[in-house]
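Action item from last week, closing it out:
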Amino acid sequence: MNTILVPVDFSKSSKNAYLFAGKFAAIRRTGVRVINIKSGSLKTNEPLYFEPNKGREEVLQDRLMRFVSDIPAPAGDAAVQSAIDAAAYTGFSTVGKITQIAREEDAMLIVMGMKGAHDVVEKVLGSVSTGVAQKAHCPVILVPEKAPYRGFDHIVYASNYEAAGEDFLNQIVAFTRLFNSTLHFVHIDLGKQEQFAKAEQKIFDYLFKNGSPDFPFHISKIQAGNAVEGLNQYCKQYPVDLVVLANKHRSKLDNLLGKSTTKRVAMHAEIPLMIYHLD
């Protein structure tokens, strides 16, 4: 099923993710499926809605349909608008339900909102968005609340030797070509010069194996104390539209980005983050 899955919780960040996904779908000419998962646990900060002669599932479905109808059709595209579907579910594990639906429906991509404050995304680890990014079978784009969709002219790929496999590079290059992007391969130098040299050679050999690549690219090395600091540094120097991270063993993202991530992920609030899994 060639569909983009958009889990929402009716927040501003999820509204932005829905708009973002719709514009993305207009380019890919694919459908958007919007879902809401109501956890079985009661949260005191969430209002309860009761309507006569309606069951729980029907009330949730009505609320989701109002959410979708209140937001302008993404990109004003009639074909995409007709391909927008919405469904409400209940479940005790929000992350488990989202990843289950994505796998059962063979979603090509999941787009979710990510809350942030100023230029810092606080307490991301442990959130539903990050849980889905860790466990989903397909790529996941986390969209900050204030991130406008402006295409992907510049894509930053945080590279390392393990993530420089041909299968993954095929995917990221195909994505780059789809959006006519400039691809930035950025290696964060944590003192492992040999690893950078291997990754750089591997990427360079791949790009030129069939002649000169048909898209612009950069291969750079940034010296930093940790991966988060290095990515922030690079994103301040260049007009980055998307940061791509490759997660090899579905390990926690704090292992991917560094232990400091358990407290905060200092990514720029206007830059979406895409997570790919290598296994």
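Closing note: The chain is about 35% helix and 25% strand.
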